[in-house]
């Protein structure tokens, strides 16, 4: 889906396989891979294949947003006990550093308050 790709985007490059990642799920709409610097025993990013800046943009596609949540849930069940924290950092003031929307799935053990 070339028209939905940002040539300077690190997650577009991961989607394309040009930067390696440890994938735990992939389908036609999203991929999920382990975060490079995990903040919890399980820390996976669920990323739509098409470039969208943040969850404000993703909300314009409710089916894709729902699918992202479903995959997060599946990952938490496969990699941990099924409980998880789902975080979309949205905008630089909220700590977003990669401007290709990604859902952080944090799971495993008991997560501390304020972890991430
Ligand atoms: P943000 O702060 O934008 O919500 O989160 C970006 C996340 O992406 C960070 O947790 C960071 O560790 C992760 N990250 C950044 N670059 C890479 C990369 O090249 N590979 C992987 N697996 N994770 C990355
Ligand atoms: Zn991108």
UniProtKB/TrEMBL annotation:
<dbReference type="InterPro" id="IPR036265">
    <property type="entry name" value="HIT-like_sf"/>
</dbReference>
<dbReference type="InterPro" id="IPR011146">
    <property type="entry name" value="HIT-like"/>
</dbReference>
<dbReference type="GO" id="GO:0003824">
    <property type="term" value="F:catalytic activity"/>
</dbReference>
<protein>
    <submittedName>
        <fullName>Histidine triad (HIT) family protein</fullName>
    </submittedName>
</protein>
<feature type="short sequence motif" description="Histidine triad motif">
    <location>
        <begin position="100"/>
        <end position="104"/>
    </location>
</feature>
<feature type="active site" description="Tele-AMP-histidine intermediate">
    <location>
        <position position="102"/>
    </location>
</feature>
<dbReference type="InterPro" id="IPR001310">
    <property type="entry name" value="Histidine_triad_HIT"/>
</dbReference>
<feature type="domain" description="HIT">
    <location>
        <begin position="10"/>
        <end position="116"/>
    </location>
</feature>
<dbReference type="Pfam" id="PF11969">
    <property type="entry name" value="DcpS_C"/>
</dbReference>
